[in-house]
Amino acid sequence: MVAFSNEIKVAMEHFGELLQEQLKRVEDLKASPGWIDYRSLDKIIIGVCGGDGIGPYISEHARRVLEVLLADDISTGRIEIRTIDGLTIENRIREMKAIPDDVLAELKRCHVILKGPTTTPKKGDPWPNIESANVAMRRYLDLFANVRPVRIPEKDIDWVFFRENTEGSYALGNKGVDVTDDLAVDFCVATTQGSERIIQLAFEHARRTGMGKVSVVTKANVIKATDGKFLHVAEEVAKEYPDVEWDDWFIDIMTAKLLDPYRAKDFKVMVLPNLYGDILTDEAAQIQGGVGTAGSANIGMRYAMFEAIHGSAPRMVKEGRAQYADPSSMIKAAAMLLDHIGYTEEARRLDMALEICCQFERRLKVTGRADGATGADFASYVLDTVSDPELETRWSRFKKR
Ligand code: IPM
Ligand code: MG
């Protein structure tokens, strides 16, 4: 019998509790009620959370775009756009909660959420090191699929990342242990059910859109238990999709190959565990033109949340530049929201307008500084473009180049 030190006993007890929680999660996953059908609802409530830093600015612009595109259904009451205040770092610190209870209750009364970036504290920051509001929201609302598209038409790049959003190194990100002063341990989680649902969604997407190919990204040669499970589940799921081609890649070489012009265009749908997805999608967004250009959908069976993929840029606010923040990522998120709740034509038009404004025509450039356009002017440019009767022709003219 090994005699464990008190420190080890404490850590073991902690680990035991975590395992119990995760096993309970597995049971919940098995009992999942299935997908909500927005089309069958009389009313869809869209909650808008401003967040921190530049968040309130850019989410306001995205909200304006939604209000224009959904004007008819807002006037009949089929759509309600509701402001949800209170998801600010000051409130979260006051309550010492990643999401204050009243805010969470309000979020749960919505169907979908448009969320501005929120500050994520880390050790040494001026505030206590509480959990990220993003990560908590993904967990509380079980938003298991983080879908992040990146398109660069002139390079023939059309990627969609399906990042697992509730497991991996994030599941217990704030529950690691400092066993002693010198030893810290974090935990990484993969469940069969959690891996299956994200991988299935990726294969479904590849099939439904005709993209036809899925790349599974792990580091299963080294991280053998969790990544090994993810890859094994992918092998099983792939058998149900004989019409979809698939391959598997390790995350390190994948970060290199996204930059390889010969290889990059061959990637289509990519599915990957949480942390790798976090990293790879920032790289992909940068290739597209910067993290300010990419939108992010956090999809669950009951709720969905749409956001920019970048942070709250407090420095821009401190330096008085918030009005110059680029709202394209939030507007892209709004397009994904529209598509998700069944307004596919509006979403398609908005996507076209964004491509024209951000990539093809670029009549206004947002630089984040006074030498560029303001976010409000840029949003007006997108709105003028989306309402242009010649939108389609304008878009295909650029497309053909
Ligand atoms: C993202 C962000 C978040 C994450 C942060 C803000 C917690 O980087 O959405 O990619 O790591 O998931
Ligand atoms: Mg990230």
- State the order of secondary-structure elements, H for helix, E for strand: HEHHEHHEHEEEEHEHEHHEHEEHHHHH
List of distinct ligands in this structure: 3-isopropylmalic acid, magnesium ion
CATH second-level architecture of the largest domain:
3-Layer(aba) Sandwich
CATH topology of the largest domain: Isopropylmalate Dehydrogenase
The percent range for strand residues is 15-25%
Coarse shape: globular
Q: Largest sheet, described in full?
A: 10 strands, mixed
Mean pLDDT figure: 94
Number of helices: 16
How many individual β-strands?
Answer: 12
> Which class best fits the helix and strand makeup?
alpha/beta
Poorly predicted segments: none
- The CATH H-level superfamily of the largest domain is Isopropylmalate Dehydrogenase
State the name of the first-level CATH class of the largest domain. Answer: Alpha Beta
> What is the helical fraction, as a range of percent?
40-55%
N- to C-terminal distance:
73 Å
Strand order of the largest sheet: 2-1-3-12-11-4-5-10-8-9
Give the quaternary arrangement of the chains: single chain
Explain how this protein is built.
With 401 residues, the protein is α/β, with parallel strands linked by helices. The chain folds into two domains: 1-31 and 144-299, 3-Layer(aba) Sandwich (Isopropylmalate Dehydrogenase); 34-121 and 130-141 and 306-401, Isopropylmalate Dehydrogenase (3-Layer(aba) Sandwich). 46% of the residues lie in helices and 16% in strands. The protein has 16 helices and twelve strands. The strands form two sheets. The chain has a ten-stranded mixed sheet with strand order 2-1-3-12-11-4-5-10-8-9, with helices on both faces. Strands 6-7 form a two-stranded antiparallel ribbon. β11 (295-299) and β12 (304-308) form a beta hairpin. α7 (192-209) crosses α8, α14 packs across α15 and α14 crosses α16. The longest helix is centred in the N-terminal third of the chain and has 25 residues, at 6-30. The chain is globular and about 80 Å long. Residues 120, 132, 134-135, 278, 309, 311 line the site of 3-isopropylmalic acid.
